[in-house]
Design goal:
The complex is a heterodimer of chains A (421) and B (194).
Chain A lengths: L1 E2 L4 H4 L1 H18 L10 E2 L4 H7 L11 E8 L6 E3 L5 E4 L7 E4 L9 E4 L11 E4 L5 E4 L4 E4 L2 H4 L8 E4 L19 E3 L5 E5 L11 H7 L3 E5 L7 E4 L8 E3 L6 E5 L12 E6 L11 E2 L3 E2 L19 E3 L5 E6 L13 E5 L12 E7 L5 E8 L3 E2 L4 E2 L3 E6 L5 E5 L4 E7 L6
Antiparallel strand pairs in A: 2-7, 3-30, 4-5, 5-6, 6-7, 8-9, 9-10, 10-11, 12-13, 13-14, 14-15, 16-17, 17-18, 18-21, 19-20, 22-23, 23-24, 24-25, 26-27, 28-29, 29-30
Chain B lengths: L6 E3 L2 E3 L2 H8 L4 H7 L4 H4 L18 H13 L7 H5 L4 H12 L2 E5 L9 H7 L18 H13 L7 H6 L3 H12 L2 E5 L3
Antiparallel strand pairs in B: 1-2, 3-4
Classes of the chains: A mainly beta (421), B mainly alpha (194).
């Protein structure tokens, strides 16, 4: 017969020493002190790298483009390329942020190691840079800032500041694991824009008011010192990718739609936001017109007109990270358009997604056609994933990085043809 | 497979409803393997999780799997993905899935000294994170954030269990993370049953 000890507080004191020191580290680092943290370094050669490189042959891209393995990065999620372009910071849904370095500029990473190992991260999915080189990292329930991270990432104890303290991004009771992968971007106004997924499939009615007020199921913006919080975007289910149109400042973002309504509804969304406070219809609508059954009889917010998605995409393909194309090495048709990653479905009868989409924009900034740019990460014969694209970023040379948290890799797609378009 | 060991709590013998459920229907692993097509994107066919938010379920105690799938189906435990997948499962299908995933073998490799394991956890979950009782999950190699999230759910009442709820109630955020880090650091390998 086994005995159970309920003296929990007493029982786990052996494990406490580690927790206490992790807590102290934030203070030490804020004071520019040192810790004894050590790096985790990811081998970029050997069996894992070779197995990943073997996947490249299956990935299809348009004529003139070439795919390669850029880096082995476990659990690779949202990416932020540093202003100088030497290092890319990559978030995870675990406890690591990776720094990915291509020092010799041969377009293959030569060093991947964890960033700020002295800090206890908690779902640090979303890194983003300000134009003056501050790295922000949005976690499940905290936002940190690392000044000049690009130059200090090689030490274990970079200087750090707290933008939003732990437990203040959302109420602690609303923390979940899924739908807590935050994405951040610094807007044209210099503020931080952070997406906050709502933690349910469809939120219960009794949560509506709270969530709407806090921007859970929305995108918030705050000053870079954490003050001035506003709900910028309303009526979102779970957005895991947004970017600003560099031409006119519109905020575009993807949204994942409701599960459990069948294989073919509701459609995935790519949304265009032209003003603060716009409401995009969730949880009343998925896509432009599919009513969510739980909300058929729930009154819609008064005096609010729902904004329909700019593009409806295949249901359950899971549109996640996205970036405008600001480079110029791709052919002209891609300039100023949006590349977005479809992570792939998780319980659709026939799996779909796991590809990179391209959406062109017209002169007025409207969506003007969406097409598949790269696919092949899904083995359509067996329904098995070889990889699952999660986010899109661009190196200063205009080539594309695609993060993949299934394979644990970053793929690079470059244009090598002679642009004649 | 380990035998059933009744759990004593303050003199009360706890034999959860899960055990009765587990005894009721013998599962067919071959049928479970077919059904596992809808699990594999997240949990793998072998039960080694493919995404961080999913737990490893290969080699899990059969009673625990039945208990959790039934709780998701009946709404006693909620998760935005699992509640949807489980809602249409019959008792027989749950038994089949549990038979498939529990039939794999899990092996662990520890680098830390087992005597440093969190004491409140080891009697049920093992110092090496392999469950010692039928209604406890293996914790070895789970993503630390998964364990962290579950402990916080027990603490807040979002998830309830007669043993886990009172334990979690006493834990601070730092203590929870320390427990999670302990079990997450254990390396596992799962060998899929044929």
């Amino acid at each position: 017969m086994q005995k159970l000890k309920l003296g929990a507080a007493l029982g786990i004191c052996t494990a406490l020493a580690g927790a206490a020191s992790a807590q102290d580290n934030m203070e030490k680092l804020s004071n520019m002190q040192r810790t004894d943290a050590t790096f985790t370094v990811i081998d970029q050669t050997g069996p894992t790298a070779e197995a990943l490189a073997d996947i490249v042959q299956f990935i299809n891209v348009p004529e003139g483009f070439e795919v390669s393995l850029y880096a082995v990065v476990p659990d690779a999620r949202s990416m932020a390329v540093a202003p100088q372009g030497t290092v890319t910071f990559v978030g995870t849904r675990k406890d690591k942020v990776w720094s990915v370095v291509d020092r010799d500029r041969n377009r293959v990473a030569d060093q991947v190691m964890d960033f700020a190992p002295s800090i206890t991260f908690d779902i640090p999915n979303g890194p983003c840079f300000s134009r003056d080189g501050f790295l922000y990292i949005a976690e499940r329930n905290r936002v940190l800032v690392f000044p000049a991270a690009e130059f200090f990432f090689e030490g274990p104890d970079p200087a750090v500041g707290v933008v939003v303290p732990k437990g203040e991004l959302i109420p602690v009771e609303e923390e979940s694991f899924n739908h807590t992968a935050r994405v951040c971007r610094v807007g044209p106004d210099g503020k931080l824009y952070i997406s906050l997924g709502q933690p349910h499939n469809v939120q219960p009615v009794e949560k509506l008011e709270l969530y709407d007020r806090l921007g859970i199921g929305g995108i918030i913006r705050i000053n870079t010192d954490g003050t001035g919080r506003e709900v910028f975007t309303r009526g979102v289910r779970n957005s895991v990718g947004h970017d600003f149109n560099p031409v006119n400042g519109d905020l575009w973002w993807t949204d994942n739609q409701t599960d459990g309504m069948g294989d073919d509804i509701p459609p995935g969304e790519l949304n265009r936001q032209t003003a603060a406070g716009q409401h995009f219809g969730y949880p009343w609508l998925g896509g432009a017109s599919i009513e969510i059954p739980e909300y058929k009889d729930v009154p819609r917010p008064e005096g609010v007109e729902f904004v329909a998605p700019a593009v409806e995409l295949q249901a359950h393909a899971a549109d996640l990270g996205m970036s405008f194309y600001r480079g110029n090495s791709f052919p002209a048709k891609y300039h100023g358009g949006i590349f977005s990653a479809q992570h792939g479905s998780w319980n659709r009868t026939v799996p779909v997604g796991a590809q990179v989409m391209f959406t062109a924009l017209d002169d007025e900034g409207n969506a003007a056609g969406t097409e598949v740019f790269a696919d092949g990460w899904l083995n359509k014969e067996t329904g098995e994933y070889r990889g699952r694209p999660m986010d899109i970023a661009f190196l200063p040379d205009g080539s594309m990085l695609v993060s993949d948290d299934f394979a644990g890799a970053i793929w690079r797609i470059a244009y090598v043809g002679t642009a004649s378009e | 497979m380990r035998g059933l060991a009744p759990l004593a709590l303050g003199g009360v013998i706890l034999t959860g409803g899960a055990l009765a459920e587990g005894d009721a229907l013998p599962g067919d692993p071959a049928a479970g393997k077919q059904l596992a097509g809808q699990c594999r994107t997240c949990h793998g066919l072998d039960g080694l999780a493919r995404i961080p938010i999913a737990p490893h379920i290969g080699g899990e105690p059969v009673a625990y799997l039945i208990h959790q799938l039934t709780a998701f189906r009946d709404g006693r435990r909620e998760h935005e993905m699992m509640s949807i997948v489980a809602r249409s499962l019959s008792d027989q299908q749950i038994a089949d899935l549990a038979a498939w995933y529990s039939g794999h073998s899990i092996a662990v490799e520890m680098t830390a000294d087992p005597s440093a394991a969190p004491e409140a956890c080891v009697d049920c979950h093992g110092a090496d994170g392999l469950a010692l009782i039928p209604d406890a999950p293996n914790l070895a190699g789970e993503t630390n954030i998964y364990i962290d999230t579950q402990l916080k759910a027990f603490r807040s009442g979002k998830r309830t269990h007669e043993v886990m709820s009172p334990i979690a109630m006493e834990l601070s955020d730092q203590e929870i993370r320390a427990v999670a880090d302990w079990f997450a650091a254990i390396n596992i390998s799962i060998e899929q049953a044929e």
